[in-house]
Amino acid sequence: MPTPVIVDVVRLASGKGKPGGALSGTHPTSLLVHVLRSLVERNDLDPALVDDVIAGCVFQASEQALNIARNAVLGAGFPESVPGTTLDRQCGSSQQAVHFAAQGVAAGAYDVVIAAGVESMSRVPMGTTPMGKDPYGPEVAARYPEGLVNQGISAELVAARWKLDRETLDAYSAESHRRAAEAAAAGFFDREIVPIAVTGADGATLEHRLDETVRATTTVEGLAGLKPAFADEVFTERFPEIDWRITPGNSSPLTDGASAVLIMSEEAAAKLGLTPRARFVSYAVTGDDPVLMLTAPIPATRQALRRAGLGIDDLDAYEVNEAFAPVPLAWAQDLAADPAKLNPRGGAIALGHALGSSGTRLLGTLLNHLEATGGRYGLQTMCEAAGMANATIIERI
């Protein structure tokens, strides 16, 4: 059976996901085009050799509709023979794209494949659906008669269940910004970020290469002054355990971004003269309570560790997506994980969470950290809407 390996990972620096953000003037297809081009160019790869492009994108409406992966393949100038498909596993979409790509190589269906992700939250707002209709249907409503909730309420429920107070959440969030700012200043993101030309507010062309969402001056005291973002009398009555701790400061910001990873068989890499950087050890995807919603990284991690024959202490780093501060904190508490190894270069609270792009973004950050520190094993996992999660363990080569 062919062994799938990671040859390279690239991403755009984050842009604030609102009008005036660094990437807000760029069409989402163009964001994905740029990382696809960058990936093949810097590896001197003939794009005709790419068997497929699998891209994650959550809100596949408006400018992100009609299979953005195929549109980006064509826009990038790849031969028309290269196909592309777009998938949605909510926040884990591009991580799932990685799983499908690697599993396709292992099955012998692909020799060379690109897994990618994109989301423009400034141009296609969160919650956009193709026709603005109810996506759940009567059967889901019948199963959950009290109704599913938004992720902010779920974050409040997680914080309450794991007894994470406001000060703990804000301290974690400030540390995320500190780590990310320190990593950026040291040039630790330089290998994964590919610069892109954008048009500034004054009409001038600028090179965007720094994460726009990192705030080096963030303090616990400053975060403490922010008001809870999801307080609602209806939910207070339904969930009396909530005391409203989730704010914009301990949540990931709306973000624009794109990222991509080059995956191929060991044989293909050798034939092309490319050096693999990591191999896949195990994969997992699982579901959990869709009301609590954000807890599935815990069982997904256990499943990935079991399949790999590893324990949590065997891992040298873990990237747990910081959709909200309670998510990595509850995960670490439940798994007795070393906090020093958790999101060592900062997480989505600082670096942003461009939904469909985040999975491949986390993979690149994890791989670069392992290489810089000499680590062997790393894990990435992320919560996903409706109570799902992917987990991936890689081994640096």
UniProtKB/TrEMBL annotation:
It comes from the Bacteria. Gene3D superfamilies: 3.40.47.10. Keywords: Acyltransferase, Transferase. The keyword Ribonucleoprotein does not apply. Residues 5-267 form the Thiolase N-terminal domain. Signal peptide: none annotated. SUPFAM superfamilies: Thiolase-like. This is Thiolase family protein. The lineage of its organism: Bacteria, Bacillati, Actinomycetota, Actinomycetes, Propionibacteriales.
